[in-house]
Specification:
Layout: E1 2-6, E2 12-16, E3 26-35, H1 38-44, E4 59-67, E5 79-83, E6 92-96, E7 100-102, H2 108-114, H3 117-128, E8 136-140, H4 145-156, E9 161-166, H5 169-176, E10 182-185, E11 198-203, H6 207-214, E12 217-225, H7 239-244, E13 248-251, H8 254-260, H9 262-277, E14 285-290, H10 294-302, E15 309-313
Parallel strand pairs: 8-9, 8-11, 9-10, 11-12, 12-13, 14-15
Antiparallel strand pairs: 1-2, 3-4, 3-6, 3-15, 4-5, 5-7
The chain binds NADP nicotinamide-adenine-dinucleotide phosphate (NAP).
NADP nicotinamide-adenine-dinucleotide phosphate (NAP) binds near residues 117, 143, 146, 253 and 304.
C-alpha cells in the first residue's frame, strides 16, 4: 500500500509498504481522508520520542475492511473515524476497535475533520470544565481546531458569555462564527477584558498566558491546561492560593486517555459525533491536500497559515 513515511532526515516521502493487519481487539480501515492536527507538527519537530521511519497521521476516516480477534465481524463495512497513534497517512490503518468511532451518515471529509479535536473540545467543556448554563468561558486559540469546536460546545452547554482569543484581526471574524460572543486579538489580552473574570478558561498556550489566565479566574473557576503551543516552560501555581478562591487547575490529555481509558474517550467521542450529526456542532474543513502534499499541510499548520481544519485525501 502507499503511505507517507517520515524519515530520520525529517523528510516525508510516499513509499510502498506492507498493509498492516488487525491484531486482537483491532480493526483495519481503508482510509478515505485523514485529518491534519497539531500533533503532526510536534512529531515533525521531534517533540515526542517516536522511532523513525514512522508513518504519521493520527485521525483516519474510512471503512472497516477487516477485524482482529475478539472484534464483532458485523463491524466490517462500518463507516468510522479512528483515533490512532500514527499510521493514518496511508491507504490502510489499524486502530483499537473501541476508538474506531461510528460515523454513519457523516461524509468522510467531515469525519476526518472530526479527528481528536472534537472529542477533546467536548471533554474540555463538558467532562472536565463542567460548563453549566450561565457560566462565562474564556477560550485561547479560538480559531484553531479545538477552539472553533469548544466555542460551539460551550454555547450548547448554555454558557452565558464566551470570549475567544486569536492571533490576528483576520481571525476575529472567522472565530465569531463558532459560538463566541466576543473575540480579542492576542495583543489585547488581558487588558481589553477590564476586570472581567471567568468560570472556565481553556489554555493550550502556556507561559505568561497561563499566569494571566489564572488571574482571570472567578471564585470557584477552573483553568483547563491541555497544551503548550507557546512554550513548554513550567508554570508554578500555589495550591494554597487556589484553595482560598475555591479554584482548580485541571489538565486534559486525550492521548493518555486513549491508552488508559479508551472506552471513556470513545463515549465522549460518540456524544461529540451525535452533536455533529444533529447539526449543533459544525466542523469547518477549509483545506484538502493530496497525499503527496502532507509536508505542506503540516508546515502550513505550523506556520499559523491555516484556520479551521485541514484534511488529506488518501483513497
Ligand atoms: N491535551 C489534549 O488532549 C489535546 C488534544 C488536542 C489538541 N491539543 C493541543 O491543543 C492545541 C490546539 O490544537 P489544535 O488542533 O486546535 O491546533 P490548531 O488548529 O493548529 O490551532 C492552534 C492555534 O494556536 C494558535 N497559536 C499558534 N501559536 C500561538 C502562540 N504562540 N500563542 C498563542 N496562540 C498561538 C493559532 O491561532 P492564532 O493564529 O489565532 O493565534 C492556532 O489557530 C495544541 O497545543 C494541541 O497540541 C491537546
Amino acid at each position: 500500500m502507499r503511505a507517507v513515511v517520515l524519515g530520520v532526515d525529517d523528510t516525508f516521502t510516499i513509499s510502498e509498504i506492507p498493509e498492516p493487519v488487525a491484531g486482537p481487539g483491532e480493526v483495519a480501515i481503508r482510509v478515505a481522508f485523514a485529518g491534519v492536527q497539531y500533533g503532526d507538527v510536534l512529531v515533525r519537530n521531534a517533540h515526542f520520542p517516536i522511532p523513525r521511519p514512522f508513518v504519521p497521521g493520527f485521525e483516519a476516516a474510512g471503512v472497516i475492511v477487516a477485524v482482529g480477534e475478539g472484534v464483532d465481524r458485523a463491524r466490517i463495512g462500518e463507516q468510522v473515524v479512528a483515533l490512532v497513534g500514527g499510521g493514518a497517512y496511508a491507504e490502510v490503518v489499524t486502530a483499537p476497535a473501541a476508538l474506531a468511532i461510528n460515523a454513519t451518515g457523516v461524509d468522510p471529509r467531515t469525519a476526518a475533520g472530526f479527528g481528536w479535536a472534537t472529542p477533546t473540545a467536548y471533554d474540555l467543556i463538558n467532562s472536565v470544565g463542567r460548563v453549566r448554563r450561565g457560566d462565562s468561558v474564556l477560550i485561547h486559540a479560538a480559531a484553531g481546531g479545538v477552539g472553533s469546536l469548544a466555542g460551539q460546545f460551550a454555547a450548547a452547554a448554555g454558557a452565558e458569555r464566551i470570549v475567544g482569543v486569536v492571533g490576528n484581526p483576520g481571525r476575529v471574524r472567522y472565530a465569531r462564527g463558532f459560538g463566541y460572543h466576543e473575540v480579542l486579538t492576542r495583543d489585547r489580552f488581558p487588558d481589553a477584558l477590564g476586570e472581567e473574570l471567568f468560570d472556565v478558561v481553556l489554555d493550550p498556550i502556556g507561559g505568561a498566558t497561563r499566569l494571566e489566565s489564572l488571574a482571570r479566574l472567578a471564585p470557584h473557576g477552573r483553568i483547563l491546561v491541555y497544551g503548550n503551543i507557546a512554550t513548554f516552560d513550567p508554570v508554578t501555581v500555589s495550591a494554597n492560593d487556589l484553595l482560598m478562591n475555591g479554584q482548580s487547575l485541571l489538565t486534559y490529555n486525550s492521548d493518555l486517555a486513549a491508552r488508559t481509558h479508551p472506552y471513556r474517550l470513545a463515549e465522549s467521542a460518540a456524544r461529540a459525533m451525535a452533536a455533529v450529526t444533529d447539526g449543533s456542532v459544525r466542523i469547518d474543513v477549509t483545506a484538502e491536500y493530496a497525499l503527496a502534499d502532507v509536508e505542506t499541510a503540516i508546515a502550513s499548520l505550523a506556520d499559523g497559515a491555516t484556520h479551521g481544519k485541514s484534511i488529506v485525501r488518501i483513497g
